[in-house]
Design brief:
Chains: A alpha/beta, B alpha+beta, C alpha/beta
Radius of gyration of chain B: 21 Å
Number of strands of chain A: 16
Largest sheet of chain B: 4 strands, mixed
Number of strands of chain B: 10
Strand content of chain B: 15-25%
Strand order of the largest sheet of chain B: 1-4-5-8
Number of helices of chain B: 10
Number of domains of chain A: 2
Distance between the termini of chain B: 34 Å
Strand order of the largest sheet of chain A: 5-9-4-1-2-3-10
CATH class of the largest domain in chain A: Alpha Beta
Shape of chain A: elongated
Largest sheet of chain A: 7 strands, parallel
Shape of chain B: globular
Order of helices and strands of chain A: EHEHEHEHEEEEEEEEHEHEHEHEH
Order of helices and strands of chain B: HHHHHEEEEEEEEHEEHHHH
Structural class of chain A: alpha/beta
Number of helices of chain A: 9
Helix content of chain B: 40-55%
Structural class of chain B: alpha+beta
CATH architecture of the largest domain in chain A: 3-Layer(aba) Sandwich
Oligomer: heterotrimer
Chain lengths: ~300, ~375, ~260
């Protein structure tokens, strides 16, 4: 194993993947492909890549339009391992690349090791209920990875390496509009404490109580997928789970959260989980460190009063 | 343990999904507030559940009676009220029209009922005529092209929410049972009124009322079957109704059994879950066995209805066994829960209250035993 | 527009998985197969697209083990016909194998203008099959689609991405992968269930679609599948009939001790 590619949604994620690549094989030649401008590619070099390409988001085409150019290059250069951001665009590119290379692709892979047998990777099954350990001897292996799986290497601005743009081929998909996500009002991924609300919150107006409690204990507020996507009571950036935010707070306080595996996936790295749910047998209670069997509103009011004392 | 056909299984799956997603969340609340579930009743119509066993030409869904039994069971597994709404509507309201109605009656009434646009009810019991149906005080007199009916009925399921009623009245008092006739009565007929609304122990969200007819004018063509056919129609209808109630009982037992298993596994006393105690294990084993036996007898009766002309014996056996199993299993489920089971924090006390009526309505357990012994001694 | 194909997976319902406390192995004995929940949104998207197309045929496509038993369930959710491919080699099928077989089936059906996949499956949730099929068929891939509209043979699609929303237009043929919020997946009615048996379900074979067993063999081997040890304590602060105030008091004390308040 000598060549590792990194394909990333943005520069910070690229830096994480570069650190991951270096830890998997410390003498690998790392080539980075970064969504962004020339400076982003330069940043990837400073973060540890030997060579970097920049793939700016095209104005009228989808970013996934780089997939054919990437597969053509991969076919020619045959990297041993390709690490990609587990972001939506990069997941799409990963799958397209894997199909054209007839290669295995592991989604959200962890504990990647390389040995004489090939590459072994852990992936999750059933929303994190089980871990599947797989091995492959394929000549190119793709893995998508989380944004915080590795700490970036120290930035070394003096590092030098070739930087160039990747060509975008003509594409059948035309982008007719983009609406940037409203400025991130919360940083759930970096928050030390998070209050999560679920379907037990039956009225939008009750979110005020959850916010008040969060403020009192110095927490951000997140939610389950239905609260954001179906009820639209909170911005989509706030939903926590396998397809949303994955958080690592010291305290996660779940209010009226049923605790389905898809949600638990996003909070499993929390240090302490507290659940308040009137359904004693809810999965969230079973997967918490501490739980209180109660109507979440009554408990939140009592907790608010106790904390304010 | 499932000998269901693919259609029956798919209907079971869809009813379970509906019951768990849309009925379970409101079951405790409607029980507490005694509120008829208008919204989910309408959904049952949209999903075709109110037209089970009815031919397509009347906007129904011609499944067999086993599938119908499975549907009632699945609804009752989360809410006894929903189980009795469709059981009363299909077994008691629709099926006599389907079996004894004229083509014109079927065309006029069945599409609205089978599609769920309207609900139906069955009016046999009177204050002084319960098991003793021959003591009917309701009287129908033919005047010109109309019957004029006077009388009142009690404990009518769907009473305040139905549009179409099967009403039994004497057309010839001198003939006793053979003087009873059946009529299709609409809510809008002059002289029709809903009387007292009952405040019940269980199935609290179902509508149980008095129905009062005062000089109620019913068109001649709304006579169901012929004059004097009423008792036969009532008894044959109740045979089918008993399969519905047996299915309701099985569902209540199943719901209580599942709740008890879950609770026993997670309730820790003396450092271990109570399910580790043989006393609890044997109780759960007996609950599961009686529930399954009740289910098999009930499906056997449904199959008998699908394949035989007369199935009174099978229906009575299923009804008495399932009702008593439901009462026993739900009571034990409360016992497994201990003190908390006696509160509304858990659904088992509701299942227990709902189960009691299955030993009473559509023929008490004593009446079922009369039917069974009458059959085997004949 | 001639044909719309919706891919669906026949998966085991994970709600009934039991974990062996000693070996951490998964016991799937009580799990019944069902149409993957995410794919129910895909099937309903197909129904809506068929309505908008004014006459396209809507087909469901699946492959795996015992998929024959999935056909009536799938047909009750809207397709005019279902094609399935059962083969023992698909027992531990990964995204690579599944997408090769599905792409082969679509190719052999011919005239498929729109392929609809969902975001992922409830078991592996690898989120690869849609874009893989697109690459294999050389159709454009549009993933994470949250709204679909059709005008002639041009689709307008909304996508949701980490940094915002994107609206794209693309001419058929195309593979789209839809998110659950694209539309609600209705519970099928009894009428739909009873009419499912009147619609055709046809078996395809690997040989019949021109694929050798070697061409679809998995690219990775599974060493183990195990449930991780959970470290959560699951302490019930309401235990023993504690009042709400008592339970909250215990929580505040505990969190203060742990330096979390």
């Amino acid at each position: 194993m000598s060549d590792i590619w990194v394909i990333a949604e943005n520069l910070p994620w690229a830096a994480t993947l570069i650190a991951g690549a270096a830890s998997i094989k410390n003498d690998a030649k790392i080539t980075a492909f970064v969504n962004g401008d020339e400076a982003a590619a330069g940043g990837a070099i400073a973060a540890g890549a030997a060579e970097a390409f920049y793939l700016p988001l095209p104005a009228n085409a989808v970013w996934e339009g780089y997939a054919p150019a990437l597969s053509e290059k991969a076919r020619a250069e045959k990297p041993d391992l390709i690490l990609l951001s587990a972001s939506r665009r990069c997941r799409d590119v990963a799958a397209q690349l894997a199909a054209t290379l007839d290669a295995p692709c592991f989604s959200e892979g962890k504990n990647i090791t390389v040995s004489g047998d090939g590459v072994t990777v852990d992936t999750l099954l059933y929303g994190g209920l089980a871990i599947k350990n797989s091995v492959t001897s394929a000549s190119t292996v793709l893995v998508t990875m989380g944004a915080k799986d590795f700490d970036p290497l120290p930035v070394d601005a003096s590092r030098d390496g070739p930087v160039s743009a990747l060509r975008l081929a003509d594409n059948a998909i035309a982008v007719t509009g983009r609406k940037p996500r409203a400025a991130q009002t919360v940083d759930l991924a970096g928050a030390l404490k998070v209050v999560g609300v679920g379907r037990g919150v039956s009225e939008e107006g009750d979110l005020g109580l959850a916010r008040e409690l969060a403020q009192a204990i110095g927490a951000e507020v997140g939610c389950t997928r239905p609260i954001a996507e179906f009820f639209k009571w909170m911005p989509e950036e706030c939903y926590i789970g396998i397809s949303g935010q994955q958080i690592k707070p010291q305290l996660y306080l779940a209010l009226g959260v049923s605790g389905q595996a898809q949600h638990y996936f996003g909070i499993r790295d929390a240090r302490t989980i507290v659940s308040i749910n009137k359904d004693k047998e809810s999965l969230m209670n079973a997967n918490a460190d501490y739980y209180i069997v109660a109507d979440w509103k009554e408990a939140a009011q009592a907790l608010l009063k106790a904390v304010k004392k | 343990m499932s000998f269901l056909t693919e259609d029956q299984q798919l209907i079971q799956n869809m009813v379970r999904e509906f019951a768990e997603k849309e009925v379970a969340p409101i079951a405790a609340e409607i029980d507490k507030t005694h509120t008829f579930p208008t919204k989910t009743a309408k959904r049952m119509g949209e999903l075709g559940l109110l037209g089970l066993t009815v031919p397509e030409e009347y906007e129904g869904n011609p499944c067999d009676n086993v599938a119908y039994s499975v549907a009632v069971e699945e609804l009752s597994r989360v809410c006894g009220t929903h189980g009795v709404i469709i059981s009363a509507h299909i077994s008691l309201g629709i099926s006599p029209i389907l079996k004894f109605g004229t083509d014109a009656q079927k065309k006029k009434y069945l599409p609205d009922l089978a599609s769920g646009r309207k609900l139906s009810a069955f009016c046999l019991t009177e204050a002084g005529a319960g098991t003793d149906a021959a003591s009917q005080q309701s009287v129908a007199e033919l005047k010109g092209d109309k019957y004029v009916i006077n009388g009142s009925k009690v404990f009518i399921t769907n009473g305040a929410v139905a549009d179409t009623f099967i009403y039994f009245a004497m057309t010839d008092k001198s003939k006793g049972l053979k003087g009873i006739s059946a009529f299709i009565v609409e809510k809008g007929f002059p002289g029709f009124a809903v009387g007292q609304v009952e405040d019940k122990l269980g199935i609290c969200a179902s509508s149980t009322t008095e129905i009062i007819l005062k000089d109620c004018q019913v068109p001649k063509e709304n006579l169901l079957g012929g004059e004097g056919q009423g008792f036969k129609i009532a008894m044959q209808t109740l045979d089918g109704g008993r399969i519905g109630i047996a299915s309701q009982a099985v569902g209540l037992a199943q719901g209580a059994l599942e709740a008890a298993i879950t609770y026993a596994k997670q309730r820790v006393q003396f450092g271990k879950p109570i399910s580790a105690n043989q006393g609890i294990q044997w109780m759960l084993a007996d609950m599961a066995t009686r529930t399954e036996a009740a289910r098999q007898l009930t499906r056997h009766a449904a199959l008998a209805k699908d394949t035989k002309d007369r199935y009174s014996l099978e229906a009575a056996m299923a009804k008495v066994f399932a009702a008593e199993a439901a009462m026993w299993v739900t009571t034990k489920a409360v016992q497994v829960h201990g003190g908390i089971g006696y509160t509304r924090s858990y659904p088992v006390e509701r299942f227990m209250r709902d189960a009691k009526i299955t030993e009473i309505y559509e023929g008490t357990s004593e009446v079922q035993r009369m039917v069974i012994s009458g059959n085997i001694l004949a | 527009m001639k044909k719309i194909a919706v891919c669906y997976k026949w998966v085991l319902n994970d709600a009934d998985i039991r974990i062996n406390e000693n070996t951490r192995a998964l016991d799937m004995e009580k799990c019944k197969p069902q149409v993957n929940e995410y794919d129910r949104n895909g099937l309903e998207t197909g129904v809506k697209l068929k309505e908008a197309s004014g006459g396209a045929e809507l087909v469901g496509i699946t492959c795996g083990l015992n998929t024959e038993s999935s056909t009536k369930d799938a047909l009750s959710r809207g397709p005019d016909a279902v094609y399935y491919l059962d083969d023992a080699i698909l027992e531990s099928s990964d995204s690579a194998t599944t997408s090769k077989v599905l792409a082969g089936m679509i190719r052999s059906l011919g005239d498929v203008d729109v392929v609809i996949c969902s975001e992922g499956s409830s078991d592996q949730y690898a989120q690869q099959v849609g874009p893989r099929i697109a690459a294999l068929l050389q159709y454009p891939s549009v993933s994470y689609v949250s709204a679909v509209s059709l005008d002639g043979d041009t689709l307008t699609l909304d996508r949701k991405l980490e940094d915002g929303a994107e609206t794209v237009t693309v001419k058929a043929p195309v593979v789209i992968s839809v998110s659950p919020d694209v539309c609600e997946a209705p519970i099928p009615s009894v009428k739909q269930i009873l009419s499912a048996k009147k619609k055709p379900a046809a078996a395809l074979t690997l040989a019949g679609i021109g694929l050798s067993a070697d061409a679809v063999k998995p690219l990775a081997a599974i060493n183990s599948v195990k449930a991780p040890q959970t470290s959560r304590k699951a302490i019930n602060l309401s235990e023993g009939g504690a009042s709400l105030d008592e339970a909250v008091g215990k929580l505040v004390k505990q969190l203060s001790t742990d330096g979390l308040l």
